[in-house]
Design goal:
Blueprint lengths: L1 H21 L5 E10 L17 E7 L2 E6 L9 E5 L8 E2 L3 H5 L3 E6 L5 E6 L17 E5 L7 E2 L3 E3 L2 E3 L4 H7 L11 E10 L3 E12 L2 E16 L2 E4 L4 E5 L2 H4 L8 E8 L4 E9 L7 E9 L3 E2 L29 E2 L4 E2 L9 E2 L3 E8 L2 E6 L23 E9 L1
Length: 399
């Protein structure tokens, strides 16, 4: 009888440790939060409308935080830097005409070897008869040591300017499904990350038939890329490499959540995913959560392509399987970051950008649209206060 009891206890203990190993827990806390100014208070557009600071991405390079804004800033670009020191100083705006002309930036990423910086717009609108929508379809890249060296990936030339319109059918093809056999007519990109091995990931927040008819999603498409003679190209066709429904992971998340940012952590070899919700026009109607995807099971077929097998400059064949291509797939399960009390780590703001500061600390910037919150805060987990020219931020530290 004792032996049977002992075996049962041993089985339960072993099962517990196996489960813990396969599903590790990540605990963190918000150690600091506040606001900083993106531009002068009461800045207006030509029509007199006040400009709102709506930062949608951030990356960290040499003690500098580099932000992208998904709204145009009068007289300058929508990319600026701040020295990482609190309180923050005044921003330094960056970018050549290519950067200034793009609209609705959604994320920015520094490559793991810190040589290049990428930024991407939303790709959520295009009208053939309206050339002004071309500017919403841009992927830019440049050397991090040369702030004004940005170029456009897969450039599409028109008399009205240059964009990356040639990438739209590529992204749409990658998002094919049973519901959208030819790819969704509408999609919105909000995440961008680069990984070791020249891997680039694009995070999709919305999929549907149009901007008024869509579903929120957490979908990541990825591909390998190369840069030769300062020309960016895909080495294989982008495809879905990761997808999940947050509510399947934690049923307590009762808001429709969509992906809002991606970032790779070179210290811990893991991918961060921000998901956020927005269903109203007050501070309690927005919020966000942070996820971790360990990349120890990130599969790469280690078979290098010969250069002769790569696409020619600017050439990209939709759906073509290149001989000798890598296998690109994420097998790990997403893990919701929690507080030390084991509750989901919740942000009162609509978090939209994440940057890794050091081994166990990340910086998160929020895009609250034109929501200002309230003067007196009684529940900081769900309420906030900011000015229209300010962006809110959170610094998160892991245990």
């Amino acid at each position: 009888m004792f032996k049977i009891f002992f075996r049962i206890i041993l089985f339960l203990i072993v099962g517990f440790f196996i489960q813990c190993e396969s599903s590790p827990l990540y605990h963190a806390e918000i150690i600091q939060e506040g606001c900083f100014e993106c531009f002068a208070e009461n800045t207006t557009y030509d029509n007199g409308k006040l400009v709102s600071c709506e930062l949608s991405g951030v990356t960290y390079y040499k003690n500098q935080l580099m932000f992208v804004d998904d709204k145009p800033i009068p007289g300058t670009s929508s990319i600026f830097c701040l020295s990482y020191q609190i309180p923050f100083g005044k921003p330094t705006f960056l970018g050549n005409e290519i950067v200034k002309n793009a609209r609705k930036y959604e994320d920015i990423s520094l490559t793991p070897h810190q040589k290049y910086i990428f930024a991407i717009t939303s790709f959520d609108r295009y009208k053939e008869q309206d050339a002004t929508t071309d500017a919403y379809n841009v992927l830019i890249y440049g050397e991090s040591s040369q702030p004004d060296s940005q170029k456009i990936a897969y450039p599409t030339y028109k008399t009205t300017g240059i964009s990356s319109l040639r990438l739209r059918p590529i992204f749409r093809h990658a998002l094919r499904s049973l519901k959208y056999k030819d790819g969704p007519p509408y999609f919105k990109i909000e995440g961008l990350a680069t990984l070791p091995g020249n891997i680039i990931l694009f995070g999709i927040r919305e999929i549907g038939t149009g901007y008024t008819d869509f579903d929120y999603t957490v979908t990541i498409i990825g591909a390998h890329y190369g840069i030769k003679n300062n020309i960016f190209y895909f080495e294989d066709s982008p495809r879905i490499v990761f997808q999940f429904n947050p509510k399947d992971i934690d049923p307590s998340l009762n808001h429709p959540l969509g992906l809002s940012s991606l970032e790779y952590d070179t210290f811990n070899k893991r991918l961060y995913i921000l998901t956020s919700y927005e269903h109203g026009e007050t501070d309690i109607d927005v919020g966000a959560y942070l996820w971790i995807v360990p990349l120890k099971k990130f599969l790469l077929k280690e078979q290098k392509m010969r250069y002769s097998q790569r696409p020619r400059k600017y050439k990209l064949n939709i759906g073509k399987q290149l001989r000798g291509q890598y296998k690109l797939e994420i097998e790990s399960k997403p893990i919701l970051v929690r507080t030390k009390e084991n509750f989901p780590l919740h942000f009162a703001h609509k978090a939209e950008g994440i940057a890794v500061l050091e081994d166990n600390t990340v910086f998160i910037v929020h895009d609250d649209d034109r929501i200002l919150g309230r003067e007196f805060i009684s529940d900081k987990n769900n309420q906030f206060s900011r000015k229209l020219n300010q962006a809110a931020y959170s610094i998160v530290q892991f245990e």
